[in-house]
Amino acid sequence: MTALGALLPSILLTAGVLAVLFADAAAKGRRPLLLPWISGTALVAVAAVAVAWLAGDRLGDRVVLGALRMDAFTAVLTLFCAVAGLVSILATLVGDGNSRPGGEFHALVLCAVVGMSVLAAAVDMVTLYLAFELVSITGYVLVGMRRADRLANEAAMKYVLFGAVSSGLMVYGLSLLFGLAGGTSLEALRAAVVSGASSQPVFVAAVVLVFAGFAFKVSAAPFHFWAPDVYQGAPTAVAGFLSVASKAAGFAGLVRVVLALGAQPATAKEPIASFLPWGSPVAAVLAVAAVLTMTVGNLAACRQKDLKRLLAYSSIAHAGYMLMALAVWTPNAMSALVFYLVTYLFMNLAAFLFAGIVVRATGSSSIDSLHGLGFRNPWLAAAFTLVMLSLTGIPPMLGFLGKLVLFESVLREGWVWFAVIGLLNGAISLYYYALPLRRMYLEGVAEGAPPVRLAPGAAVLAAVLVLPVVAFFLWWSPLADWARTVVPSLRIGS
Amino acid sequence: MTGFLEHIGLMHFLTVGAVLFCAGIVTVLARRNAVGVLIGLELVLNAANLNLVAFDRFGPAPLRGSVFAIFVLAVAAAEAAIALAIVLNVFDSRDEIDVDEVSALKG
């Protein structure tokens, strides 16, 4: 694949950024409906490119420009983030906050998607760092977009301070890894690790520092404290975008880094087949982070009174499940991670879409604002219920399939204690996912409560997101097979 | 170049970098003022830059580290601009940038 082909998503998105800014300036603040069309077209074009890459099998699995690796994993993550960006823009139009956002909002979302698609492909530390920061910095602005809103201000400040400090830790760690590797490419790093650099104490310190940056990005404990505040203060659609796309991009970057840190010889035929033996330090750090993250997320979610905070802790818990797959690190577990990310995309975007619709209708994001929703808008309540059941992992919803594949891959490696902790966490989550359902159905409806309307556009978007959640179990075996095809090409070298 | 400068090697630079890094982290943790936290962050980033440039000078990959350091500088500038804009906005809405006092969101 040529360099131009590899950069096609970035070029399309940058063209979209320029177009949307010029259109906004030309419209002189009249905010035409043109803007969503432009940014939507750019994102659909990128998604189409990614699908063509996946279908055409012409990626070549090689490194372009010394920095980007074009493989199926890159294509999947590009598709994933483009879809998440598109859904978030549409959800902004029907949800709370500014329902006619200016050109800068669209430009920032497109820039964030550029960063995410590059982060998924990056096999060079400089590129990795730049893409990481592109995603972070656009996120800070998106959260603080509503300048008059005190809570949004506070959320943005917490996000930027937390994010800047964790990325500072990460870049210090990267500088040490650069010294150990003698080069900025992840391949050079892997070569250094293979030849024994991992036995030096400074290596462990560097790895911990780099993981700190990624832990912030995927909201893993103990770097998760920003998530609830930011999700509560940000516009709901932006919170959904951060919780899905930003987290997926963080996992993609983490996968590439762990590939480099693992101690397999560079010539191994099977790229990621169990080269992290039991008890290797990298696996141990990931396993501890996974247990801590899911437990903290699930326990803290139980005492939340705010719907967006509840979803924030739920997304922290899901990050813990996904870290489980990373800690186990077999081809099976990696395909389970890809599969889980796809299930998570639909469930979480739908959950935040519904939260946004409710917040817009009632003016509050408290769980109490769901009171009697089952009678005020039965369709919306039913769809919300399905999504909550899916997030819990109740069969036959999509979320159940994701957990099934994930736990199966963990058990296959004999990590029984790990799977048991995961299942116990699933049981805890049943409690807090049921809280909104109780409010919607079991506590009657207050006198004079306003009906919650579902605009036609919102209904279509909701149907598109909820249908896979309910119906994918019919095709789950092809879907799981497809997730397995992503993994064999996953490497960091040519 | 003669004299004691000849004896300055990689470890000296790395030690200065590590001291800067620790000073930055302590500043970040101890300062309650948001601008103070950002200043501590700059120390951390400069510690990383010092490492990169030193590895570049003494290591096998010429220029790589310097290029990395230039990118880190550029990103740090962008990050500081965004962070200060956000902090200014918070100050406008509540006359307060103490990170412990700005805490309407919790739970």
Could you please describe the fold and organization of this structure?
The complex is a heterodimer of chains A (494) and B (107). In chain A, 73% of the residues lie in helices and 1% in strands. Chain A has a two-stranded antiparallel sheet. Chain A has one domain. Chain A is built from 20 helices and two strands. With 494 residues, chain A is mainly α. Chain A has helices at residues 3-6, 8-26, 34-56, 72-94, 103-121, 125-143, 150-181, 186-194, 201-217, 226-233, 236-261, 281-301, 307-328, 331-362, 373-376, 378-392, 398-412, 416-441, 456-471, 476-486; strands at 62-64, 68-70. Chain B is mainly α and 107 residues long. Helix content of chain B is 72%, strand content 0%. Chain B has helices at residues 10-30, 34-58, 64-94. Chain B is elongated and about 55 Å long. The interface between A and B is large, with 47 and 45 residues.
Number of alpha- plus pi-helical segments of chain B:
3
Give the proportion of residues in helices of chain B: over 70%
Count of all domains of chain A: 1
Oligomer: heterodimer
Total strands of chain B: the figure is 0
The main pleated sheet of chain A reads as:
2 strands, antiparallel
Q: End-to-end distance of chain B, in Å?
A: 61 Å
How much strand content do the residues of chain A show?
under 5%
Topology:
The complex is a heterodimer of chains A (about 500) and B (about 110).
Chain A: H1 3-6, H2 8-26, H3 34-56, E1 62-64, E2 68-70, H4 72-94, H5 103-121, H6 125-143, H7 150-181, H8 186-194, H9 201-217, H10 226-233, H11 236-261, H12 281-301, H13 307-328, H14 331-362, H15 373-376, H16 378-392, H17 398-412, H18 416-441, H19 456-471, H20 476-486
Antiparallel strand pairs in A: 1-2
Helix pairs in contact in A: 2-3, 2-5, 3-4, 3-5, 4-5, 4-11, 4-14, 5-6, 5-11, 6-7, 6-11, 7-8, 7-9, 7-10, 8-11, 9-11, 10-11, 10-13, 11-13, 11-14, 12-13, 12-18, 13-14, 13-17, 13-18, 14-16, 14-17, 14-19, 14-20, 16-18, 16-19
Chain B: H1 10-30, H2 34-58, H3 64-94
Helix pairs in contact in B: 1-2, 2-3
